[in-house]
Amino acid sequence: MEIDRRIKIRHLRTFVEVARTASVGRAAEVMHVSQPAVSKTLAELETALGARLMDRNRSGVSLTPVGQMFHAYASSSLAALRQGIEGITETLAAGGLRLSIGALPSVAARIVPDATVEMGRVAPEVGLAIVTGPNGYLLSELASGALDLVIGRLGNPEAMSGLSFSQLYSERISLVVRPGHPLVGCTDVAALSDYQIVFPNRDAAIRTLAEQFFIAQGIRQAGHRVETVSESFGRAYLRKTDAVWVISSGVVALDVSEGMLVELPIATRETLGPVGLTMRGDGDPSPALRLVIEAVRRTVTRLGL
């Protein structure tokens, strides 16, 4: 439910102060405004909520049952806002914010650059350290506190202890080759058996999915299979050989769109897996981290993933 736009912070502050002092007059003195201004603000709040929050009598002001319920939320909201402002002020006074973000290669190539550009526009005071690597390594760094956020594949159950995951989109595996490769345009998956495979190694998040795909397709193990998670090696090696690269589609999306690599028209839908945000489950993200998360989400939406 969307919050009524008529309700402003001044309404909450006035309501909480009147409840604390049990008096419109004393609240007006504390807030350095007139009593009619306090009464007008309270009336606006009650109108917006459609409920009577306070009873006024000769002895002062008392909360109605609805007012008591609303007071708990109004007080906690103002306290959280105050803490957030103080936290940012203290951090900036100490020399600026810096967040460490872990990203799988597919995300680092496709999502993180645009999200970083947006962060530079909306929050230039927040510095970002981008760390890439295998999913297991990134999740262990997150759990230890070395990283503030990981953007990548959902981890194995044993690696997710104490962590929370929020899905952004699903990503599949791509089979790519160099332009001019003999398999360009080939839809026969069995033809892969005749070529060397560049395969994700055991630390890669897509390793199990890739293994399951090859087994399901009845593709025999190549005699000379190169295993790596290095995208720079994969790109360089494909330029020199007829190898087929098994890689997350996000890693090579730009290469394929620019014609540097060619994706084979072989269906890999069964390799779809969730990609999202992984955080420690020990509390709410900081205001700065929330900005990063929103920048990532907007980037994903803009790219249509």
Describe the structure.
The chain has 3 domains: 9-93, Orthogonal Bundle (Arc Repressor Mutant, subunit A), CATH 1.10.10.10; 97-169 and 274-303, 3-Layer(aba) Sandwich (D-Maltodextrin-Binding Protein, domain 2); 173-271, 3-Layer(aba) Sandwich (D-Maltodextrin-Binding Protein, domain 2). 45% of the residues lie in helices and 20% in strands. It has 11 helices and 12 strands. It has helices at 9-21, 24-31, 35-49, 65-93, 105-110, 112-122, 135-144, 207-216, 231-240, 249-257, 287-303, and strands at residues 54-57, 60-63, 97-103, 126-132, 149-153, 163-171, 173-177, 197-199, 226-227, 244-248, 262-263, 273-280. The radius of gyration is 28 Å and the shape is elongated. The two termini are 26 Å apart. The model has no long low-confidence stretch (mean pLDDT 88).
Quick synopsis:
It is built from eleven helices and twelve strands. With 305 residues, it is an alpha/beta fold.
Which regions contain 5 or more consecutive residues with pLDDT less than 50? none
Based on CA atoms alone, the radius of gyration comes out at 28 Å
- Overall outline: elongated
Tell me the number of helical segments per DSSP (H or I, 4 or more residues long): 11
Mean pLDDT: 88
How many individual domains?
A: 3
Strand order of the largest sheet: 4-3-5-12-6
CATH topology of the largest domain: D-Maltodextrin-Binding Protein, domain 2
Q: How many angstroms separate the termini? A: 26 Å
Quantity of strands, as a count = 12
CATH superfamily of the largest domain: Periplasmic binding protein-like II
Q: What's the CATH class of the largest domain, please?
A: Alpha Beta
> What share of the residues does DSSP label as strand, in percent?
15-25%
Which CATH architecture of the largest domain is right? 3-Layer(aba) Sandwich
Protein name: Pca operon transcription factor PcaQ
Keywords: DNA-binding, Transcription, Transcription regulation
Pfam family, one: LysR_substrate
GO molecular function, one term: DNA binding
